[in-house]
Every structure is written in structure tokens, then in C-alpha cells.
Amino acid sequence: MKSSTAANIAAVMPSSWSTANRPSVTRFSTCRVAPVRGLSSMKGVRVVVVGAGVVGFSTAVCIAEALPFCSVSLLAEKFSPDTTSDGAAGILFAAEFPDIPLERQRRWFKNSFDHLLDIAQSRNSPEAGVMLSSGWQIFKDVPADKKPFWSELVIGFRSMTDAELKRFPDHKFGQAFTTIKCECSSYLPWLHQRFIKAGGQVEQRKVNSLQELSNAYDVIVNCSGLGSKQLAGDDEVHPVRGQVLKVEAPWLKHFIRDGDGKTYIYPGIHSVTIGGTRQEGDWRLHVDEGEAKSIVERCGALEPSVSRARVLSEWVGLRPGRRNPRVEREVAQLRGRRVPVVHNYGHGGWGVTLAWGTALDALGLVRMCLHKMPQRAKL
Ligand code: FAD
């Protein structure tokens, strides 16, 4: 008998698809990130990662596994289940960032997708909260770009047929594909364990300024999401408020997303996430009952059975909005010392999608810091 996930995939996947047909990729599997050679003289270099969301933990794991000769610590004010990442629907796809070369965005997406696909297809899948998810993205007007940059990186991407679109009479165009859903309430504790296994150390603490860290660490990696507004003094970072509900609707097996990004139904492992809102500059963290009602109505218009589902929980999160994510290195003057800082924040509504890919870039930047470090600090 086919598993329900396998049946799901078959429903939207072209029959010609197989793993063998996918483009070949560099795999960073559920196995450790390969240790970097040739830097062993860096023994004892102290690296600190600030942030315990999906970006912070992904980055910390990549660094701890690839640079076992460094001592890696992670500091954060909030840990799972209290981060923004915890409440994200965690579905993998993305919008284009305006000023980042598409090739780089494609690499971020691909490295994340392939890393999570390995987990989804392994025995770690239930514990890590990572699963394949098939469904439809539908549009009221035919979009100018019918094939987003990630269309060849997900599985079986195709336009929907007229027969399929009949189910959605208000929509003129649609895309069917299989992607991944990564549920951070499971994935973060799983990454946390993986980090500890790689020798990492964790401390709960609010960092009031990067200056505080300048004496105790040789390299600072800032993954503080929305916190970077204050910590990096970055006025470009702003909240994009999102409200969702978790409902009990085990009969729903396919995701449905309106192309405007505001209304979606994402079946997960234990519940179905329905949403949503995208409110730029809105800091309100409480649930708005009027918005909850509107979400149920909008989702009910796409899939009427949603209106009959029992509500399990309601949640609000603030996406770390920024025109482009900031994944770059700088040397900061902190308490009279020049300290390398690697920034990795500002992923907006796509932090789960891009976390592993940007973490690998951040790892590359940390390596660059080590190469440029004076010999004294390496000993
Ligand atoms: P966070 O998860 O916010 O973590 C930030 C960390 O930094 C926390 O540990 C915090 O305590 C710490 N920190 C901050 N400041 C300090 C400080 N001064 N000192 C110490 N620690 C500090 N993305 C997707 O890819 N797919 C989706 O389907 C999706 N759905 C979403 C739905 C909603 C409703 C919302 C709100 C978001 C959604 N997102 C989705 C976006 C995603 O949640 C974010 O992009 C992602 O969580 C950002 O991760 P992060 O690690 O940068 O930030």
C-alpha cells in the first residue's frame, strides 16, 4: 500500500519524474557538514552565534560541524518554542529579492531544499518535522512570470490543467508541484541536539550590544533576525506581521496557496496551518479576532471543508522584513578591538526556505575571517 505522502506526491507529479531526473547537486545530507581541511592552526578560535531561530541554529550547526577545531557557542534571548521560526508554516518556496543576484538566491534555495529533502527521505523525518508536501499555487490573474526561479529546484513543477483549475472558479492560472514543509517546532530542537553533538555550547542570554561579546569571542555571527534592528543598528529591518491558525483537518492532504501570499492552507504532520496576513511595520503580537475570522472565511472560499475544522491554536509572528537579507562580513571596531562580524539576517517571509543555504554562505564568510585573522588569535 502507498503511504499517504507517496499518494500525495503521485497526485501532482508528472509520471516521468524520478530522483534520477533531478539535476545533480552537492549534497549536505543529514550527515555532518564536511569538516574543512587546512585550517587546523586555528585551534581554539572562539566563534559565537547570536540567535536560536532557524537561521541561527542552521548557521551554528554548519560552523560547528565544518570547523571542529573552533569552539562554537550560541547565545539567544529566546529558544524554541518561543522564536518566530517556531510558528512559521515552514513551506519551501520564495519570492525574488530585488538586489541579490538570482544565481545566489537559486543557490540558497537549492542548498536548503536538497538538505531538507535528504532529511524528509530519511528515518529522521518525523523527529525533525520535515516532510514532502504537494499542492497548488493559484492566481486570480495570470502572473507575468509563470515559472519562478525555483521552479526547477522543487519536484515536478508544472502548470495546472483546466480540469484542475475548475476546483477554483475565481482563479485563472495555477502551478502544481511538490515541495517541503519544515516544522520548526520539531526541527529547532533537532538542530539543537545536532549542534550539541558537534561540540557546540548554548546559553540563554539577551545581548544588549555586540560590544559585550568583543572580549570573549574572536568571530561574532549575528543571526538575530528582527533583533538586528537594535543589535546591528539596522533601520532597514522591520516587522512584517503574520497571523495564522492551526486547525484539525486530517482529511486535507494538499497545500493550496493564493499567489498573493495572503491566503494559504498548509497540511502538516499534526495539524493544518491556515493563514494569513502580511502587515508591514506592524508590531502587534496579540491575536486579532477579526483577522482570524477573515482567515477562516478566505481559506473556506478555497476549500469549504476548512470552515468545519476545529481550531487548535492561534498565533502571531513578526517576520524579519528587509529589502534583501543581509549575508555579509564586516570588521567592527568594538571596545577598541577590530572584530570580524558575519551577518545573516533579514530573511522576511522566507527564513525557513533559505536558512540552510544562507548558513552555508555564512560558514564561507567565517572561514574567510579565519584566513584573515592575525596569527596571535589563531593560537
Ligand atoms: P527568529 O526565528 O526570529 O530568531 C531570532 C533569534 O534571535 C531568537 O532566538 C531571538 O531570541 C534572538 N535574538 C534577537 N535579538 C537578540 C538579542 N539582542 N540577544 C540575544 N538574542 C537575540 N518562512 C518560510 O520560509 N516559509 C514559510 O512558510 C513561512 N511562513 C511564515 C508564516 C508566518 C505567519 C510568519 C510570521 C513567518 C513565516 N515565515 C516563513 C518566515 C520565517 O518565520 C522567518 O523568516 C524566520 O523565522 C526567520 O528566522 P530567524 O532565525 O532569522 O529569526
UniProtKB/TrEMBL annotation:
It is found in: Peroxisome matrix. FAD binds at T84, S85, V207, G348, G349, W350, G351, V352, T353. D-dopa binds at Y264, R319, G349. The keyword NADP does not apply. Its main location: other. Residues 46-359 form the FAD dependent oxidoreductase domain. Keywords: FAD, Flavoprotein, Membrane, Oxidoreductase, Peroxisome, Transmembrane, Transmembrane helix. GO terms for molecular function: D-aspartate oxidase activity; FAD binding. GO terms for biological process: D-amino acid catabolic process; L-aspartate catabolic process. Its EC number is 1.4.3.1. Pfam families: DAO. InterPro entries: D-amino_acid_oxidase_CS, DAO, FAD-dep_OxRdtase. Signal peptide: none annotated. The chain crosses the membrane at residues 47-69. GO terms for cellular component: peroxisomal matrix. PANTHER family: D-AMINO ACID OXIDASE, D-ASPARTATE OXIDASE. Selectively catalyzes the oxidative deamination of acidic amino acids. Suppresses the level of D-aspartate in the brain, an amino acid that can act as an agonist for glutamate receptors. Protects the organism from the toxicity of D-amino acids. May also function in the intestine. Belongs to the DAMOX/DASOX family. This is D-aspartate oxidase. It comes from Gasterosteus aculeatus aculeatus.
